[in-house]
Amino acid sequence: MNIEIINSKFVITDFDEFEAYRIGSKIEEDGIYFYKNCLNRVTTAAAKEAIEFLIGEEKSHLKFFQDCLYELRQEKEDSSEENDLLTSLDYGIFNLAFNPVKSSKKDQLLQTIAFAIEIEDRSIEFYQAVQASVKGPDVKVQLSRIVKEETRHKAILKGLAI
What we know:
This protein has helices spanning 17-38, 45-75, 82-88, 105-133, 137-160; strands at residues 2-6, 9-13. The chain is mainly alpha-helical. The longest helix is centred in the middle third of the chain and has 31 residues, at 45-75.
């Protein structure tokens, strides 16, 4: 699978569902890690609750991609090298540089939220590109659900910035 960002949109060529599900899993694992680190940056109970909710959502998405991968492996042999793919692939989601400027805690929180919103935007774009390429109608429906949830995540994050 080749992933390029052209005109700010993900374009996938040489598509392989195995790769898409592994990348989806990696995106969600990275999301869980990122949001767990965000818990250290938020101070209000409402913000902590929102971040914990997002962690739960990412875990649910991770399970979905892992289940898809498992089901696909029941149907056909997975001959690609999982670790080689993920370590060499620049899939454009969490590879953004996140270096909050040393400033007030409020400003650092706002920087973290802005970064998280950008991650959600890129995840949405990637999942929409995968949705357009997968064959199974059930998977398309579930990817549509995940896109809606990722969109809701953005709204939650924007609410934290207020």
